[in-house]
Amino acid sequence: xxxxxxxxxxxxxxxxxxxxxxxxxxxxxxxxxxxxxxxxxxxxxxxxxxxxxxxxxxxxxxxxxxxxxxxxxxxxxxxxxxxxxxxxxxxxxxxxxxxxxxxxxxxxxxxxxxxxxxxxxxxxxxxxxxxxxxxxxxxxxxxxxxxxxxxxxxxxxxxxxxxxxxxxxxxxxxxxxxxxxxxxxxxxxxxxxxxxxxxxxxxxxxxxxxxxxxxxxxxxxxxxxxxxxxxxxxxxxxxxxxxxxxxxxxxxxxxxxxxxxxxxxxxxxxxxxxxxxxxxxxxxxxxxxxxxxxxxxxxxxxxxxxxxxxxxxxxxxxxxxxxxxxxxxxxxxxxxxxxxxxxxxxxxxxxxxxxxxxxxxxxxxxxxxxxx
Length: 372
What we know:
- The chain is α/β, with parallel strands linked by helices.
- The chain has a single domain (5-365), classed as 2-enoyl-CoA Hydratase, Chain A, domain 1 (Alpha-Beta Complex).
- It is built from 17 helices and 9 strands.
- The strands form 2 sheets. It has a 6-stranded mixed beta sheet, sandwiched between helices. Strands 4-6-8 form a 3-stranded parallel beta sheet.
- Strand 2, helix 1 and strand 3 (53-60) form a beta-alpha-beta unit.
- Helix 2 (73-81) runs antiparallel to helix 3 (88-106) and helix 3 (88-106) runs parallel beside helix 4 (122-128).
- The two termini are 38 Å apart.
- The relative contact order is 0.13.
């Protein structure tokens, strides 16, 4: 039995240490299990309180993925066994996952995330919480929840609504795979390094003059990454999101039926946009409505309120939404032929969406009520 997540410390010349978290299920693309989430929450809280730890690094085992999302099979089996009920498995997994994401967002010490390879769903939730988010030439960053009857959770309600123009809505509906330049453009990444610079980076971090001054440590790491990445700016690929921002905004303009019509009738030679179009149109009509509801939250809600909203919607998706059918088609039977509850976005009953976005808890009894 290999450890699903490995915790190590790296000594530095300053006498301070760097805490290193390695997601370690390479064959499952380091998908998050509940055990991994719980172990990380415990260890990161310890390191937060440990004066000898100056900085934390999150990385994934192997070269294919940082983290491809959450391992949702246990939720699926529990939800199938208890139809129309919110299960302990769904509530427990999403609650602890969001607590971990929120801890990362609120972490005082620098958190460097090595976002190499696949960074999707729950993996993006971890990365978004890091202070120093590195993308590489192999990074493939996406929120593919529309394909499993969910919506971009793990804080997506906060960060998607703060992206340029209608980019957040586009990413939610199409599960578009961002490259490094795209991720930098929408601020999911904030530094770029080639994947073979990882060891030199760790060596350079061990040489930094870390101290007990947290603000100074943040600046030290920022300066190091800025210097290291400067030499590689010229090798960055093109960002489709940036280049086609105006077209994306037009494509995503209007209400849900307008956008569905615009995507359905889109005639394009651009392969990346064809893939995005195909994914969106094959996605769950319920997910479409949830993604629009999420976009309408705007930027009014705090990060804490976004996670609180998401927890209600996520557990409701498992009991009365398309989540179980989406997971069955993609991960269980793998037939990729989901039989969604509604055949088209226009046939979705609005009472169902209202039910899905209504929290099952009284505010005082909300599992994330302590988020401030």
